[in-house]
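Notes from hallway chat w/ T.B., transcribed later so I don't forget. T.B. wanted the structure written out for a chain they're using in a teaching module, and asked if we could keep both sequence and structure tokens in one place. Agreed to drop them here.
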Amino acid sequence: MPTTHTLVIGAGQAGLAMSRRLTDAGIDHVVLERGRTAERWRSERWESLRLLTPNWATRLPGWTYTGPHPDGYMTADELATYLSTYAGSFDAPIEEGQDVHELCYADNGFTARTSDGSWTAQNVVVATGWCDQPRVPGFAERLDPAVAQITPSAYRRPDLVPDGRVLVVGAAATGVQIADELARAGREVVLAVGGHSRVPRRYRGMDIWWWLDQIGVFATTIDEVSDSTRSRNEGALQLVGRDDYRDLDLPTLEGLGVRLSGRLTGIRGDHLTFADDLEETTAAADERLTRLLTRIDDHIVATGLDREVLPAVSPARLPPTEPIKRLHARRDRIAAVVWATGYRRSYPWLRVPVLDSDGEIVQRRGITPVAGLYVLGQRFQHRRDSNFIDGVRHDATYVARHIASRQCHPTTPSLSREDAS
């Protein structure tokens, strides 16, 4: 049975960042990957997808974008190549095709049973990602079986979606991008709008990502927010990465002919019902947007950038609209539902007692209650950007230091669940 000091499970951006930091520290380790390096970016993304983050914001430990388009946005295939090249730059010890079926803990360390054998190690870093399994509401099983149900990991392009009207559920980045692509392909689309954070692609001449970085949004830690659970579950950004830098928001979609509704609240066969909360939801998103832009404007004044950037322009507001309250699948020709309702984590292979009542790994800055078991790439793990490509480097550095300290002091005690939360 092969043995290494530290096992890293997952060879996406989190696992590779961890591998680089362990390499820098001279710590023997192996990265186990169920498929190919960056597999999820290769096989679970739609064809037109581009990153929400500019190329300059794909910084990893010891690695940064050096191409000709720092303000552009990589496709999923380009990012997979970028990550593979990164792995090759430090000869990351990746074992591909190693799907972990079980991870157990005993007094002498951890044993990982994979599809191709078993490994033992003193430490394990779970880096399987935040976007693990699509989250689909339980009432989806009550939908008429004649209606196709599609998750974002299975969606590829409009012509592969059955003919007819499409209901897209969820109005964060994934939902609005898929709704936009379908509408531009001539499809009739209904968008069920839930909580989201609306931002412009560019503001006063600069990418919104640059502004968020400049005003310290990404550097905010979980210790600085009043409600950690709410912060980790708040609506994702409503944004798209395109070389024409256009905005993608509800006014844009309505202009394309997309019909809007409130949250989808129930399904009974052919009947779909929606909450009467579209106005409330959009008003809340607009209020958050106003606060953000005011904060940016204040930063501009405080740093003397007034003459360096463009004048402020207020984003368009959604005009008064009559939202859809209910649909009848057959009568309204609903051919498919796209569940852009977020993701959940699933750890059926994790036989170590570190999961909370919601099935999430209990952790503090990546350190779990079981000594030697770590996690990386979780949303708001420590910083607000912990699950972003550009942010995982900070947590990888912290976790690597902790692993190195265990190497020097192997009797480091476990955290309590209270300390790790």
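Follow-up for T.B.: Residues 411-421 have pLDDT under 50 and may be disordered. Might be a good example for the class.
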